[in-house]
Write a structure and sequence with these properties.
The chain has about 375 residues and is an alpha/beta fold. α5 links the parallel β2 and β3. α1 packs antiparallel against α3 and α3 packs parallel to α8. It starts with 7 loop residues before the first helix and ends with a helix.
Amino acid sequence: MAKDPRRIETRVAQAGRDHARSDGAVNPPVHHASTLIIDHVEDLYGEAKRTYALDGMSVHEALKEALIAVEGGAGATLAPSGLAACTLALLACVREGGEALVTDSVYKPTRRFCDRMLKRLGVRTRYYDPGIGAGIAELITDATCAVFLESPGSLTFEVQDVPAIAAAARARDAATIIDNTWSAGVYFKPFAHGIDLSIQALTKYQGGHSDLLVGAVLARSKDWQARVFAAAKELGLGVAPDDAYLALRGMRTMLARLSQQSASALKIAQWLETRAEVARVIHPALESHRDHALWRRDFSGASALFGFVLRPCAPEKLKAMLEGFSVLKMGFSWGGYESLIVPCSEQLVRTARPWREEGELIRLSVGLEHPDDLLADLEAGLARLA
């Protein structure tokens, strides 16, 4: 497929807009359907014609086209949530008696799936240091089916050396999967770095309004796309047409939102670095970040999710800080229009690379509020620690 020469802003505005498919409307139709009428016997069990709405309708096709226009790849498969996209990608790759190598910084629900479901299915999971880079070659065996990456990592934001890991896996015929939600497919291009499957939790930046649950697995090649799509059909996964529509609608404004949110987040991260109450700010775009050089090499920008570590404080002081905000609210999602804050130390599970910070880890998702209002809220919150 020839590369689209247009800039990403134009591609995301134009993708999926087939006027013939939508009777001239700018947006695709939303079909509330399960059953499809088939006129010819030969089409009932053939491959050429869609025979059931679980395979997706016009709005689903438009959303997949928009995803590919942003991130690239040969195809996309939708899933009911970001976690479902993670589990779908893994199930499309693993086999009984095989193993998955998974970054130790992985999203906790993905880790839970590996430790419970994959174990019951006879698949072993080994966790590796996210900073291992090319050294992962020493861990890959004949049993290794997949190497799962997440860069930056959930909560702790380690940036992985994706090209080195992908090259080592490719040399041993192991599939590579990356959860690329943090970059929204905008700031990091996994297929250009050798990855086979890329996961997006469309709930986050693509949706942008905290009102839907959708995920997607994008594939480097047609063969990988067929493999993932077959696994989704076998699992019976589908996405409601209204949710697909909301994700597509959110994508039309995603780049504008990301630009504002990421700028605000960097301003706030830089301010937090000046605060005596803060031991460390964990934002890949800061020069103080341990993996800043990797981020500069591989990423074209940063999203609005980052973390910081407070200096040790009494639990009641932390509670007062978190419960007293007026603009910031506590919540476990991110990427929406609203700013969210959450303490994360209780979520941390590490077996390959221990987390050694003494203070509380805080995750901050910066929304569309004015950054000065967020800074004032944070300043008042930090004062409550005194």
